Amino acid sequence: MKRFRDIRVLSTLSTLILIAIGLIALAETQPPKLYVFRGASPFNDGVIGTMDFMNMVRSRYPDTISISSLHELNSISKADRCLYIVVSPEIPYSVEEARYIANTLISRCNTLSFLIADENTTSNNILTSLDSDISIDGRIIYSNVYGFYPPTYIDLRDIAREGDAKVYSIVLDIASPINVKESAIVIGRTVDGYTVAVYRSLHMLNRSIEIIAIGDGSIFLNQVMRSNTTIYRDLAMSLTNILCGYDNKCKVIFDGSHYQAIDPLNIFSSSSSFRPSDIASLAIYQDVFTIALSVMLRFIHPSTWLPPLVEYINRFFVSITTSFLLSTAIAVILMAIVYRVFLRRENIVVDQRLPEVREVEMFVFRDLRESIARGKYRLTKHDFVNLFEIIDNVFRSVVGVELCSNRALEYISSLVGSEKAGRYVDRMCRGYRKAVRGGIRPFILSWHRYTMSMIRESESILNAMGYTLTREKGVEYIFLK
Fold first, then answer.
1. HEC states along 121-140?
2. DSSP SS3 for 460
3. Which of 134, 254, 324, 342 is at a distance of 20 to 30 A from 279, taking alpha carbons?
4. Do residues 467 and 358 touch, judged by C-beta distance below 8 A?
5. Which residues pair with 154 in a beta bridge?
């Protein structure tokens, strides 16, 4: 049985120093920015987010991404067809931002499509930058019969392929009318006659552009995608298919840059501007586990707790230096700790025995020795067991450990070398287990030859230790137990 010696690569002190260096390095960096988002952000997996819509689209169009900053558009690869999706942004797009979106996507996509679903005017500048002649009114539709939830028909028969070319009967939630000229195709009206969804196809800078604008983004929210009603999921995928031209290689971009990003730690800080009602609404509209994970990761980062800890330790030592008795007591305690540490690490050298040769006390019969010498006596596995137990007793009395222990192996290695020591201990221990417990390995064809071989090796090991078993009395002792 081959034995391996444990090797310590680094000392405990070196390991602690490396850990301290790593913590200080991490403390110099900023903690991970794990924000939570309110509103219909693709990064929001709460009930009013759109993460489920994005994941559903990604299952059909693998090249689907979400961006948290408009500057990320510079890093997207060129594609034959792109779809840009905006759902109920909370922060209005400026004219410069809208032009930047249009120009960047036109330079990277041969064919470009937009899905704008918004009940406010926050995304109108995007529609204006595309010269679409479409705008969202921003006024909320209210009916004496249906209130803020008007029944609506979305008719895709004029713009969709077979399978998606049908009429969807849905209910909107706080929707806004859409202002449109005759160049656009109306694909959605409420039962009261309000235009709430339009399709527009145009050309801009030698690029073909398609636009679908809907006056309500709530039909794409997670709570709707997770409902038992499949019609909203079917409608969402039909609109995506139309604008992607049914091309599986279509690059779909969800814009998550215009939603309020909230640092969870700021919610609970004393200087936070959040009211209790805001915190309650955030807990309702956000996934609780996402908030808890974000807070936990911020707290365990060294930049959060290490500077205050260092500051506290510094103040503690400053307070100590002002008191003579306290500083003296601390110094004595530290000295005692250091003394104990160095005392434990002190190398203790075991006294070596004098090199005189001693014989293990055994009784011998003359006729037995003569029988072995003449080959009349064949050694058996019981004789090997006797040999092992005698050698094991020698090690227990001299070294203080059993023969098959790591410390015994180390001791023998210091005398005859690691290779010879490992071979000897391996053969002795494995042979003993086979003789006592049985088994297949090691393969021993003759216990007589095996035992005689181990007698010679044992004598060599014992000689190195200052002992002998065979020089004066022979090997017959093993049969007398």
1. CCCHHHHHHCCCCEEECCCC
2. helix
3. 254
4. yes
5. 168, 188
415 has a pLDDT exceeding 90: no
Cα angle for residues 48, 51, 56 (degrees, 5° grid): 125
Q: How far apart are CA 73 and CA 204, in angstroms?
A: 19
Structure tokens at 179: 């202002």
Alpha-carbon distance values, 168 to 28, 172, 194 (Å): 55, 12, 16
Q: Give the separation between CA 13 and CA 16, rounded to whole angstroms.
A: 5
Upstream peptide bond of 177 is cis (omega within 30 degrees of 0): no
Same domain, residue pair 127 and 252: yes
Same domain, residue pair 253 and 368 = no
251 and 387, same structural domain?
A: no
* CA 149 and chain centroid, separation: 44
3-state secondary structure of 235: helix
Domain end point (choices 241, 262, 283): 262
Last residue of a domain, one of 219, 246, 262: 262
- 363 lies in some domain: yes
Is the Cα torsion angle 324, 329, 332, 337 positive or negative in sign? negative
Question: Does 339 map to a domain?
Answer: no
Q: Encode pLDDT of 349-380 as tens digits.
A: 555 554 544 444 443 334 444 555 555 567 88
**What's residue 21's pLDDT?**
76
89-146 tens-digit pLDDT: 999 999 999 999 999 999 999 999 999 999 999 999 999 999 998 999 999 999 888 9
Residue 43 and residue 150 in one domain:
yes
Higher pLDDT, 478 or 168: 168
Torsion 236-285-34-297 (CA) sign: negative
In a domain, 306, yes or no: no
Q: Angle at CA 32, nearest 5°, toward 29 and 33?
A: 120
- If asked whether residues 370 and 257 sit together in one domain, one would say no
Reported as a pLDDT band with limits 50, 70 and 90, residue 260 is confident
What is the count of structural domains for the chain?
2
Report strand pairing: 195-204 vs 185-190. antiparallel
CB 143 within 8 A of CB 189: no
> pTM to 2 decimals?
0.58
CA distance 282 to 284: 5
Domain extent, residue 130, equals 36-262
* 241 and 371 co-located in one domain: no
- The answer to whether residues 75 and 221 belong to one domain is yes
Residue 439 covered by a domain:
yes
250 and 387 assigned to the same domain: no
